[in-house]
Design a protein that fits this description.
373 residues; alpha+beta; 2 iron, 2 sulfur cluster binding; Naphthalene 1,2-dioxygenase Alpha Subunit, Chain A, domain 1; Rieske Iron-sulfur Protein; 7-stranded antiparallel sheet; 6-stranded antiparallel sheet
């Protein structure tokens, strides 16, 4: 199910006269199924973190666009992503992460595959102790690989296989963040949440600072609404905080070296369309993978990275924890309002709403990208 011509016209009008997406875009699972194909499937999306498969033989199952996938680091140290189903009867291969494995073995009939997805054995397929058959011609029953790559510590996939190369997809954001040496950062804490809200509401909330005074009064006290600016590019958008305060007392975390003056006290909170929330500040980088479970339920998993191996030392433990705890508190404040927003999408008294032409340029841009997908 997709937008009607009338709904599309309203969303894509100039911001001062546009209406937001209709309620069913947030409540209808058939609408989400269409998004799985047209929004998530055709673009590059984040599904896991590089440290989830840190060593050869590590495997990490995920759900992406409603499909079970398996992230694997092979014996050749290459990261690959496969559809997490056996080619025999379609059984899901893996339910939980595992480490230091040499094969992928189906729990149903024990078909086994190499970590590179090659079918290796089909026990008793043609009868007891008769394991082979002409229909199992070499190469025809290997695991189905998904186009994948790694960007800034995130495992990315393109399910349709026909998007532009990943390096081109991220090129403009890479240029925008050229001052930050994100490749040499160290992981340092994360968290996951499930909550009753459509995935788009999560991102629309993230893209604007208009809600700070009411929803995040503590945050607004030192990073006030008036100290925020918006940024909109082709496939990334978000907000800048021009008054970022790195650490609360104790040892100040290591910072990116040689930052330009205009980045010394700036936090950038951006969305790489369609669903990867990425933020960078002078002392840390954070990634949030947003995964719709259903039209009304979203899974959000985020990971922090700090500057250089030095930041992992014990002397900075309290400072790292302070950053993670602070963001967790803001996330919990957001979840309460997100669930209220989802409840409101069941009301016939709501028509999509108006956009603030000052505060919600990013939200409108996001909705237009969804509508045009």
């Amino acid at each position: 199910m997709s937008l009607t011509d009338r709904e599309y016209s309203f969303v894509t009008k100039p911001i001062d006269v546009a209406l937001g997406l209709p309620n069913r875009a947030y409540t209808d699972n058939s609408f989400l199924s269409s998004e799985y194909e047209k929004v998530f499937g055709c673009n590059w999306i984040g599904i896991a973190f590089e440290q989830d498969i840190a060593e050869s033989g590590d495997m990490f199952p995920v759900i992406a666009a409603g499909q079970p996938l398996l992230v694997v680091r092979g014996q050749d140290n290459q990261v690959r992503v496969f559809h997490n189903v056996c080619r025999h009867r379609g059984a899901k291969l893996l339910d939980k992460p595992c480490s230091k494995k040499r094969h992928i073995v189906c729990p149903y009939h024990a078909w086994s595959y190499s970590l590179e997805g090659i079918l290796k054995s089909t026990p008793n397929f043609s009868g007891p102790k008769n394991h082979n058959h002409p229909t199992l011609e070499e190469g025809t029953q290997n695991l189905v690989e998904v186009r994948s790559g790694i960007w800034n510590h995130v495992v990315m996939v393109n399910l349709s296989g026909d998007s532009i190369p990943l390096r081109d997809w991220t090129a403009r954001l890479d240029e925008h963040w050229a001052a930050f040496d994100i490749a040499n950062m160290a992981p340092g804490g994360g968290m996951a949440f499930d909550f009753d809200s459509n995935w788009k509401l999560v991102l629309e909330n993230y893209l604007e600072s208009y809600h700070l005074p009411k929803v995040h009064p503590v945050l607004n006290s030192f990073s006030p609404l008036e100290d925020h600016e918006l940024v909109v590019d082709e496939i990334f958008m978000g907000q800048l905080s021009l008054n970022y305060r790195p650490s609360d007392g104790g040892n100040v975390l290591p910072r990116f070296p040689n930052l330009p003056e205009d980045r010394q006290a700036t936090g950038e909170y951006l969305l790489l369309f369609p669903s990867l929330m990425v933020s960078v500040t002078p002392d840390h980088y954070r990634v949030t993978i947003v995964t719709p479970i259903s039209a009304g339920v979203t899974h959000q998993r985020w990971q922090f990275y700090f500057v250089g191996s030095e930041s992992c030392e014990e002397q900075y433990a309290d400072a790292r924890e302070s950053v993670v705890t602070r963001v967790a508190s803001y996330t919990k404040e957001d979840i309460e309002i997100l669930e209220r927003l989802q409840a409101g999408r069941s009301s016939s008294g709501y028509d999509g709403g108006r956009f603030s032409p000052f505060h919600e340029i990013t939200t409108h841009h996001f909705q237009k990208l969804v509508a045009r997908s």
